[in-house]
Amino acid sequence: MKKTILLLAALSAVTLASAQKLVIKGSDTLGAKLVPMLAEDYKARHAGVIFEIAAEGSTTGISAIIDGTAQIGMSSRRAKPTEVSAATAKGVSMKPIIVAFDGIGVIVNQGNPLAALTRRQVEQIFAGDITDWSQVGGTSGKISIYTRNTSSGTYADFKELAMKKRDYASSSQKMAGNEQIAAEVAKNPNGIGYVGLAYLHDPGIKTVAIDGALPSEESVIAKKYPYARPTFYYTNGEPTGEAAKFVEFTLGDEGQKIVRKVGFVPVRALN
Amino acid sequence: MVGPRFGPTTGTQFNDNPDRPIMLHLKSKLFALASVLLCAGTAFAQDSGPLIDILVRKGLITDQEGEDLRSELTKDFAANSAAGKLNLGSHLTEFKLGGDVRLRHQVETQAPQNGTVSNERTRERFRFRFNGDALMQKGWGAGFALETASAADSGNQTFENGNNDYNLYLARAYVSWRPNLNWMFVGGKQKNPFYTTDMVWDSDINPQGVTEIHTRFIGAKDTLEFRASQLLMDDNNETGGGRAGRDAWLFAQQAVYTHWFGKDAIGNAVNSLVIAPGFMVYNDSTLSGLDNETPFNGTTDGLAVFTMPGEVNWMNVAGAGTAVKLYWDFAYNLEAERRVRKVYGLAGQPKDATAWLVGVGYGSGTGKVQGDYSVKLDYRSLGTGSLDVNLSDSDWAFGRLNQEGFKLAAAYNLTDFASFNATYFHTTDKRETQTSAVSNLDHSQILQLDLVVKF
Fold first, then answer.
1. Does residue B280 sit in helix, strand or coil?
2. Residues 142-161 (A) with a CB less than 8 A from some CB of B
3. Would you write out chain B's pLDDT as a tens digit for each of its 455 residues?
């Protein structure tokens, strides 16, 4: 019995010693659901790989690559010149790899007759320059604006993508998540808000075309829809070892199907 | 399978598809494009984002190729430019740095009343100013200014004491909040918020306290602003008791009405009329430690001054860009008698409650372009009891009251950023035999020749 326990302990030690550990840090947009699901699938195919995933924001992901505390940094934004400069000073070469696109759709109440807006009109509505639907060809009524709260990355992204970095109207109401925005717009005939692509089919809302383009996987991939952004893995130079395999898996068909399943847009059309 | 358009091309370990020749072709294009952009310099490289976006959108390069190119350009920008190492907060919408250096040759005569000797001298002086003003989201702002010399009414430093170095002082440190077009609030040591002439407020003074401004737009041609400041002039120790134990506050308020009239060749109203009645009053306190040109360290009693500056501008009078300006100021101290007789101790002297200025100017251009020039001449008269001597222009009669005389100023832009200025002041006393230091100047002359370079 004693010998058996010793043998099992020795085997466990050998297994742990041979296990590959992949440390991934960064964006909560990617790290909340997408990367953990990719990791689970990857582990099922590659026994012995251990993941350590910390989703505390894009800045932490880029810092982790600069500091060498992660093999992959997740980021929903590009590295800033100051970060690239800091990396260069430490001999680190920041390598961005696009792993998915993230689209943001503009929604209104299902009863709203309006079907399309221009980018300029969206900017003016969310900035508070336009306050009544009649100013954009709709039925008269005071516009109610719903946005994500200030801690959300999407809050800042929408400002950059749609509002030329202007401030939201002071009357805008801050919501905790996509579901809450969709629910409020569904209840309010004069409501307008924005949600991720996965939430565009919630009941009671409809999606508005922007400059003639509706948000969809196809329009994002074809660069016809304006409110879309790439999301990244960052590595120190070309990825190697287990990190390279995981990046390859993420960009492969299986990984990109998971990307689609989580609500992101794959980096290319899938079969 | 990684397709040719969106797949990673630089990470060749991911690329095991048969399109390799196409990928190599794309890589060649990418290399050529990167070479062009990188060779174009860092400034162009930093502006290349939209160009890369277009190339991606047109399918000439893939997203990943675009990203690799963008990354290389960012690395180049970070390595070869200061901006790549400057980390500004994302809440900033604008951060403006600037300043100027002024070299001055000054010739002056200062003759006291009942004196036998005129103080005549020349001085070689300079002034350095460095300002930073930040605009932030939600209408917030903040800023600072550094300058030579500690006096509130002058940034001039005379070249002296061998090659000793000179101090820099904090001339401004403020925060502002403009919630909408109609309201603005400023706190701290700030630019003078009032419409004024240098008869009442020396232009070098940066008052300290809080300011509220409300703007009303009346149609397209009229604006009415209400400005109010509560300015802390001295912090006194409350244990002192009486007026010496009260902080000194100056409460100033003003209405500024602007009317636009006339039309230029394309129909814009370009002529303007400004009228700005105001009132400023101190609480009953004391001032000490002032080191302006003519400081009055003593009680603030007897200063309740009504002011009425204004101007009329006529544009394009002698061709496009030329202008004639008529400007004036008027001040009347409601408590001049107490100020003169009790505070200055000039028993038996008249209160001389009035100060006035009238001037005319002619200019070509805005003063910001090479070849622009302007000439201004004003005449003013300052009664002994009319104004706060600590605030009025330190150059005109060396900041003294009980003087009348003129100021002639000319400016010429040598370049868009450098100008040559010449200013001449000449004053004489209004009343003789005044014994107070604020009013006992017989006559004065100052000639200033300046070279100003902005950066």
1. strand
2. 156
3. 333 333 333 333 333 343 444 444 555 555 566 565 555 555 555 567 778 888 888 888 888 999 999 888 888 887 777 766 777 776 787 899 999 999 999 999 999 987 767 789 999 999 999 999 999 888 899 999 999 999 999 999 999 999 999 999 999 999 999 998 899 999 999 999 999 999 999 999 999 999 999 999 998 899 999 999 999 999 999 887 888 899 999 999 999 999 999 887 777 888 999 999 999 999 999 999 998 888 999 999 999 999 999 999 999 899 888 999 999 999 999 999 999 999 999 998 999 999 999 999 999 998 889 999 999 999 999 999 999 999 999 999 999 999 999 999 999 999 999 999 999 999 999 998 888 999 999 999 999 999 999 99
The chain B residues in contact with chain A (CB within 8 A) are 1-3, 5-8, 10-11, 13-14, 46, 56-57, 63-64, 67-68, 70-71, 74-75, 77-79, 83-87, 90, 93, 137-138
pTM of the model: 0.65
The Cα B230–Cα A207 span in angstroms is 52
* Structure token pair of residue B449: 């020749």
On chain A, the residues whose CB falls within 8 A of the CB of B7 are: 251, 267-268
The answer to whether the CB atoms of A269 and B8 lie below 8 A apart is no
Do B256 and B272 contact (CB within 8 A), yes or no?
no
Contact: A88, B78; criterion CB under 8 Å: yes
Could B75 and A268 be called an inter-chain contact, meaning their C-beta atoms sit closer than 8 Å? no
CA distance B5 to B63: 7
Residues of A in contact with B56 (CB under 8 A): 223
> Across the interface, do A85 and B79 touch by the CB < 8 Å criterion?
yes
Which residues in B lie closer than 8 A to residue A252 (C-beta atoms)?
Answer: 2
Distance from CA of B70 to the nearest CA of A (A): 9
Which tokens sit at A85? 């400069």
Q: To which residue do tokens 């390859």 refer?
A: A248
Q: Which residues of B touch A156 (CB under 8 A)?
A: 90
Whole-angstrom CA distances from B350 to A217, B72, B210, B346 are 87, 78, 35, 9
* Identity of the residue in A223, A244, A268 whose CB atom sits nearest the CB atom of B13: A244
* Closest chain B C-alpha to A172 CA, distance in angstroms: 13
Per DSSP (E only), the strands in A37-183 are 49-55, 72-75, 94-109, 116-117, 144-148, 173-175
A257 CB-contact burial (10 Å; exposed 0-12 / middle 13-18 / buried 19+): middle
> Are A112 and A93 in contact, with CB atoms under 8 Å apart?
no
**CA nearest to A45, candidates A270, A196, A179, A242:** A242
Whole-angstrom distance, CA of residue A145 vs CA of residue A104: 15
